[in-house]
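pls design
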């Protein structure tokens, strides 16, 4: 957290069951909101280098916000989060809790990047090619997201409520026509139509949706390929020759 703050980045993270050492309450801001002083341990933490340890501040102020999550059919959970957003007037405890809830959007964004764009399996054979693959996936993802943002802005909507896969399909379908159109007015009209279609493809509002963490499609009964294809082919040739 200190490293991120040194770069001007605010942090919001969840506390686990084990209490963190060197946390001392300084002032209670609200019933479930406390300003805390977090002091640096006396001994250097092993996974930090001496250079990293030297730039850590002796202490830093953080807020501890407690919130209760009640979902139908599940036991109530009491969650504690730490944040560097210290201005309680600008960031209330309720807004901090809502911001932590939005962390689920990060999981959905990763799913769009890995599953929808098929980034789960990289096909490069060298580190340099793999890096280029990752960069190109990131470029494609950001371009789609930027177009979704423009589409939502044209309708005063929320870009997070738009379908990423729907936007990808529409961009793929219209890209060849955008390439062959030479007149500027035709390209602008088609792009405007693309934005309208993307903005109209809204996801249903499904808060607290529960899904099983399981796949429906059954795997094939074939054996797993645990060796390179060349080795397997050589073994098959020897077997057939014998």
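designed seq:
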């Amino acid at each position: 957290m200190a490293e991120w703050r040194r770069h001007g980045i605010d942090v919001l993270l969840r506390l686990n069951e084990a209490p963190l050492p060197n946390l001392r309450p300084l002032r209670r801001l609200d019933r479930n909101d406390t300003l805390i002083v977090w002091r640096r341990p006396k001994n250097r933490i092993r996974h930090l280098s001496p250079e990293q340890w030297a730039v850590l501040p002796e202490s830093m102020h953080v807020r501890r916000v407690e919130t209760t999550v009640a979902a139908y059919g599940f036991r109530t959970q009491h969650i504690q989060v730490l944040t560097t957003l210290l201005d309680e007037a600008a960031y209330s405890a309720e807004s901090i809790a809502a911001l932590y809830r939005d962390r689920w959007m990060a999981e959905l964004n990763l799913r769009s990047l890995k599953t929808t764009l098929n980034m789960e399996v990289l096909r490069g054979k060298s580190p340099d090619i793999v890096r280029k693959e990752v960069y190109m996936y990131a470029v494609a993802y950001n371009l789609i997201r930027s177009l979704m943002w423009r589409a939502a802005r044209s309708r005063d909507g929320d870009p997070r409520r738009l379908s990423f896969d729907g936007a990808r399909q529409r961009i793929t379908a219209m890209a060849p026509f955008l390439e062959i159109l030479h007149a500027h007015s035709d390209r602008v009209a088609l792009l405007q139509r693309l934005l309208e279609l993307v903005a109209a493809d809204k996801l249903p509002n499904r808060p607290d949706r529960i899904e099983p963490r399981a796949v429906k499609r059954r795997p094939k009964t074939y054996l797993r390929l645990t060796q390179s294809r060349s080795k397997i082919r050589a073994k098959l040739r020897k077997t057939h020759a014998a």
